[in-house]
Amino acid sequence: MSSLPAQFAGVTVVTKANVYFDGNVVSHSVLFADGAKKTLGLIRPGSYHFGTKAAERMEIVAGACSVTLDGTTAAKAYAAGTYFDVPANSGFTIAVQAGLCEYICSFLS
After folding, report:
1. 54-78 as b/e, with b when 16 or more CB fall inside 10 Å?
2. Spatial contact of 103 and 43, defined as CB atoms under 8 Å apart
3. How far apart are CA 52 and CA 39, in angstroms?
4. Residue 101 CB coordination number (10 Å)
5. What pTM value is reported for the model?
6. How many domains does the chain have?
7. 93 in a domain, yes or no?
8. Is 6 within a domain?
9. What does 5-54 look like in DSSP terms, one character per residue?
10. 103 in a domain, yes or no?
11. Which long-range contacts (CB under 8 A, 24 or more apart) does 8-11 make?
12. In the predicted model, is pLDDT for residue 51 greater than 80?
């Protein structure tokens, strides 16, 4: 379980949305003074594949999803308050069965 923040202080939010899969996945970038970057987003029902350049931590804020990391065959379920890590130069398929899945994506070094 992760301890999810309710808010971020002293940040810059990029107003232009990151829109993927015909608007079914939408996020906004949050930039921190120390150079860190996160995205806050929503995923509508469906199955979507993402590639990664940097390693990522996906924290589920609300809703639920199942995730299959590249190179694996088994999907694992994640609910609000949980997270999964994705290696750099890899990818994952995330599936939402119903409702919205809200997330925080942290780009790890």
Report:
1. eebbbbbbebbbbbbbeeeeeeeeb
2. yes
3. 14
4. 26
5. 0.92
6. 1
7. yes
8. no
9. -S---SEEE--S-EEEGGGTEEEEEEEETTS-EEEEEEE-SEEEEEE-SS
10. yes
11. 8/32, 8/38
12. yes
* CATH for 48: 2.60.120.10
Q: Going by DSSP bridges, is the β-strand pair 101-108/37-43 parallel, antiparallel, or unpaired?
A: antiparallel
Residue 68 within any structural domain of the chain: yes
pLDDT at 17 over 60: yes
Q: Is the pLDDT of residue 3 over 80?
A: no
Alpha carbon separation from 96 to 5, 9, 60, 63 (Å, rounded): 22, 30, 12, 9
Closest residue by Cα to residue 39 from 109, 92, 90, 106: 106
Quote the tokens at residue 7: 């808010």
Q: The tokens of 4 are what?
A: 């999810």
Structural domain span for residue 23? 11-108
User: How far apart (Å, rounded) are the C-alpha atoms in residues 80 and 43?
Assistant: 13
